[in-house]
Amino acid sequence: MHEREIPVLIVGGSLVGLTTSLLLSARGVPNLVVERHRGTAIHPRAASFHQRSMEIFRSVGLQQEIEEAAAREFVQGGAIVSVESLSGKELKYFFKSYNEGVEDLSPTSRLFITQVGLEPIIRRRAASLGAEHRYSTELVSFEQSSDGVRAIIRPRDGGDEELIHAQYLVAADGAHSSIRQRLGIPMLGRGSFAHCVTIYFRADVRPMLRGRNLSVVYVNHPTLLGFFRFSIEGDSGFLAVFVTSDADGSNRTTDIAAGATMERCVEYVRTALGCGPEVPIEIENVQPWHAQAGWAERFSDGRVLLVGDAAHVMPPTGGFGGNTGIADAHNLAWKLAAVLDGSAGPGLLATYDAERRPAAALTVEQAYTRYVLRVDSTLPQDDLAPPLDDASIELGIVYHSAAVAPSVADPAAPPLDDPRTPSGRLGTRLPHIPITWNGATASLLDVANDSLVLLAGPEGGAWVNAADAVAQKLGVRLRAYRVGPDADLVADAQAFTQATGIGPGGVVLVRPDGVLAWSAADPVADPTGAVAAIMRQILCRD
Ligand SMILES: Cc1cc2nc3c(=O)[nH]c(=O)nc-3n(C[C@H](O)[C@H](O)[C@H](O)COP(=O)(O)OP(=O)(O)OC[C@H]3O[C@@H](n4cnc5c(N)ncnc54)[C@H](O)[C@@H]3O)c2cc1C
Fold it and tell me: How many whole angstroms from 288 Cα to the centroid of ligand 1?
């Protein structure tokens, strides 16, 4: 059998596997992706991508390309609305315009682009950075030891099996993850609550849209609960159906997939559009899937790390599923890179589970709350997590782990940070502040994406001077800048110190994933010693 060594093997080459591959490749970590399908997505599925995901893609130079591709697919900035039917009564606007109120929080915008449009962009960039992607290839089996993972992969065209020796295995193999199952990791949460279908159809919906720019349309019809997305041309779209019943509420079913004949699918689309037989409807494809809400009991097992739907599943209400997976990949990639190049101890990888599992569990519950409130209000509401602000879920996740100091959560603190009023809470994302850097306009976020970075206040020169000594002492990359009106990073000094919670002589330490790891409000007598000590802690070196 042919044998091959690779630091990281990624199983699953869809949205999250490809993003992991891209972010590892951007950090110089060789990786191999194996994907059972012949290529990237052929069904649109995820389309709403949040600002944090776009910031992650911006960090590898993809913002513009993705925005241009998105503009070809959708008129951006549409509304998210609930209707009785597309032609009928509007019930509630959840967003009048998708980016309203969040424009200043990020150098990016929330964006609509399908997985069909997005995945090839991620794949191309990852490949150009050296990643190897093998489609029509599946993982057959794997075993792990304290030294590494041995995995057998096989081309689906009947070619020879290959033995892969990897340091780490990333399971990006989706909601039915065979890797998770083989490790015996149970799912927690609420399980499956509807066996839905997504019906891809062609029909001229322009007269029913009546000029409205609607990004997502929830349908709350007496006989059908679901949601629509439409193509930019208005001549096609999909309808996801969660629940059907008779008009009086009887014969209610959540097992839509079981009886989804072509005739019935046409009927569902007609009902949800609110049109008669004069509108021709052609069904192109019907995809069954389970609406679930759950997360894996642990996100890692030895040298295997779960990301994306393999680690958490949630209903599409809120558009969180793919975005949460992208955040997993971002959290994991720098940690794998640091452990593999020896700048961090293996304990850093344990912080992946400690950080991402609670974040995913919170997000799953928020997606479920939105499912009940936006789609199926007949479900029990007494155990629902209260709905939290969307921008805070997207940009205000707070991590507690050994890779953040202090690592213990304050039980009195809110679960999320509000990105509109950042305070420098440790474990949160570095806030976006417009800066001038080397004469060009940028965001503070652009500074912290490829190594640990010290950002000092306008009077914090001593911290900057300490960085080289710390980097040499520990053998790690550490960059340092002053931020202020006459500093390396030109910015409003007060905006920076307020948003990071430090004084003019203080400093924040930012991780390569843009998370605030530590801060000192004021100068200290031995900045080199202080930074070296905290770096050892954050990188789990002891
Ligand atoms: C109708 C709908 C709308 C949605 N809308 C949104 C949205 O607007 N925003 C959002 O963020 N999310 C949305 N989601 C969720 C989003 O689509 C998923 O969270 C996302 O696709 C998960 O990506 P993934 O890469 O983790 O898993 P998947 O996309 O499931 O990919 C897993 C891959 O692993 C491969 N695989 C499995 N086993 C093996 C093996 N043994 N060997 C090789 N390959 C293997 C599979 O072939 C598959 O391609 C939506 C979902 C649905 C159904």
Answer: 13
